[in-house]
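Why do we bother with a discrete structure alphabet at all? Because it lets us treat a fold like text: something you can write down, compare, and reason about line by line. To make this less abstract, here is a complete entry for Protein IMPACT. Read it the way you would read a sentence in a foreign language you are learning: slowly, and without expecting to understand everything at once.
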Amino acid sequence: MASSSWGHMAEVDTGTDQRQNEEIEAMAAIYGEEWCVIDDCAKIFCIRISDDIDNPKWTLCLQVMLPNEYPGTAPPVYQLNAPWLKGQERTDLSNSLEEIYMQNIGESILYLWVEKIRDVLIQKSQMTEPGPDVKKKTEEEDAECEDDILSPCPPVKALNLGSSENQAGAATRMVEREELPPIDHGVPITDRRSTFQAHLAPVVCLKQVKTVLAKLYENKKIASATHNIYAYRIYCEDKQTFLQDYEDDGETAAGGRLLHLMEVKGYQNSFSG
């Protein structure tokens, strides 16, 4: 019985490996030089996607790692790299990719992901750009109000608060949101001359993420670490979406894996680093 089960498991693994190899070959054939092999053994790949091949206006690099369970029972671990991709745009695109996976569980989805990203870039390039005067004014306003734009927490002045008591209470809550949340520090673990330590904190807006990072970097050991990876997930009730992002800090796909784990576990309003 044990021999039969082991043989069946090996057969499944071989089939999965074959499906992955076939998909990799197809992607390389379709996208040519845009497809790049980062680590063949670890099955980490990158593809450069643009709105227009000849005259690109918007470009994004999609990095993927294919786990052993893909495409059967697990999605690819992915990372979206583009200097312009931030905030809600990143969240919306990530949600679109995850929706494609949920609609095609058990199927190869890299091609669907790439073409979805390309569609998003094409739509972005077709959007009407503001005129010089409007654009200049917008940039000036952005520079003055950067924190308000980045933070999903609404500024107090934008709320219809009513009485002075309500105003005071709302202002207090806003201050609490911007204060440093409690940070839990894990026990350091050393493996093969490398030391790892986890840090967790509850966060409800981007300002708190920045505050947590600033506090952690006050520690000289943390600031001088070779890699400081982190990820966060914040649930925006008004939009019923997640504001989430991660940082690899030179450790390929590490932050993306951490964020994926947080998604699988259903964590929200959390910072992990």
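What the structure line is telling us, in plain words: Residues 39 and 247 are 20 Å apart (CA to CA). The chain has two domains: 2-126, 180-272.
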